[in-house]
TrEMBL record:
Pfam family, one: Lipase
GO molecular function: lipase activity
Claim: Hydrolase is one of the keywords in the record: no
Gene Ontology biological process: lipid catabolic process
Full protein name: Lipase domain-containing protein
InterPro entries on file: AB_hydrolase_fold, Lipase, Lipase_N, TAG_lipase
Coiled-coil blocks: none
Entry's Gene Ontology cellular component terms: extracellular space
Principal localisation: secreted
Domain of life: Eukaryota
Keyword terms of this UniProt record: Secreted
């Protein structure tokens, strides 16, 4: 889970129920991932509490200062290598240690994929593992996970935001080190989910070697509302930057992803904010306890955010492409007036010639791509 997990951390017990708070979520439905409230009497006022905890803290850049970063960030950041020779057990890499690199299964001439997970996640989580396995299935590559789970732990999201800078710089240093040891610079591809997107963005701006491609998977927006280009992933960080937006909007709208175009090519599946299959909970069909309502709502929000990763993973080996069309808006796209515009594929097989905003629709469940 990523920022959506903040919802789990703001569960508070109250003696009354603010039922009105959830009324607008009473249409549609949500996927369930089995998360259950600890106690059905728990009362969750997700929105109110999360706004109180996060919005005022984050919105003012000074209160989300990089000074909050962990002073031991370099000791708490790891780089873990998997290849087809070690698809399950990782080999740790150390920046500047050529001996360890030489003893590892790293192949300098192969593509190097570097993936940074999001807040509250780790390299052991489902999305990270499926990302790794999908890349290794597709090609003989060096898959490196940025292991920053000790710096991405809840509950203090702004502290994890501050840790993006040191972790990103270290990741940029790793890129330079690998290239200094003979790695093919043109075969680097960095990816990050949510906060991880800004980590790989910082890596791109830190590395002295120009990175050919960075992919941002629903880059986190809370705490970055006023951030400059140096703090966020944007098009200056690599030769080609592609972004997949799946939960674009403001936290106050219960959305977690960047709502602006920041890459060379920005993809807005289903409009970029709400994804089919992640629709708000149809409470009428669920238990009417508020705890259950809140739990399902939590899943719905995180579901939209995580879909960016789901779409990308499917694009790595999927038989059906995510064909996307350049257009000015989702509304225009749906009218068909952009039908003759430039098209490309969202995800791994994107054309690096793509430029602008791209729209497409997806299915509510795998296979998500519609061709
Ligand atoms: Ca940047």
């Amino acid at each position: 889970m990523d920022i959506g997990n903040i919802l789990n951390w703001v569960i508070i017990r109250e003696s009354t129920v603010d039922d009105l708070h959830f009324k607008k979520e009473r249409n549609g439905r949500s996927e369930s991932n089995g998360v259950k409230p600890n106690n059905e009497d728990d009362v969750v006022q997700y929105s109110l509490v999360s706004y109180l905890l996060v919005v005022p803290w984050c919105y003012h850049a000074d209160l989300c200062s990089e000074a909050l970063a962990d002073p031991f960030a370099s000791l708490k950041t790891g780089f873990l290598l998997w290849t087809r020779r070690n698809p399950v057990l990782f080999q740790p890499l150390l920046i500047g240690n050529a001996a360890i690199l030489a003893l590892s299964n790293y192949v300098p001439s192969n593509p190097t994929i570097i993936y940074a997970h999001g807040w509250t996640e780790s390299f052991r989580d489902d999305l990270s593992i499926r990302m790794r396995d999908s890349f290794l299935q597709r090609e003989d590559c060096n898959f490196i996970a940025v292991d920053w789970q000790l710096l991405a732990m809840p509950p203090l999201y702004p502290k994890s935001v501050a840790n993006v800078r040191p972790v990103g710089i270290l990741t940029g240093n790793l890129v330079d080190f690998l290239i200094s040891q003979g790695a093919n610079r043109l075969r680097f591809h960095l990816l990050g989910f949510s906060l991880g997107a800004h980590i790989v963005g910082r890596a791109g701006s830190t590395a002295t070697n120009r990175i050919p491609r960075i992919t941002g998977l629903d880059p986190a927006f809370p705490c970055f509302e006023k951030a400059g280009a140096d703090r966020i992933l944007e098009r200056s960080d690599a030769t080609f930057v592609d972004i997949i937006h799946t939960n674009a909007g403001f936290l106050i709208e219960k959305r977690l992803g960047f709502p602006f175009s920041i890459g060379h090519a920005d993809f807005w599946p289903n409009g970029g904010s709400i994804q089919p299959g992640c629709d708000p909970v149809n409470i009428a069909t669920q238990s009417t306890t508020v705890g259950n309502i809140a739990s399902l709502f939590v899943q719905a929000v995180a579901c939209n955010h995580r879909r960016a990763v789901e779409y990308f993973i499917e694009s790595i080996n999927g038989a059906i492409p995510f064909t996307a069309t350049q257009c000015n808006s989702y509304a225009e796209f749906n009218t068909g007036v952009c039908a003759n515009n430039f098209r490309t594929f969202m995800g791994l097989p994107v054309s690096t010639l793509a430029n602008g905003n791209f729209y497409l629709n997806t299915n509510p469940r795998p296979p998500f791509a519609q061709g």
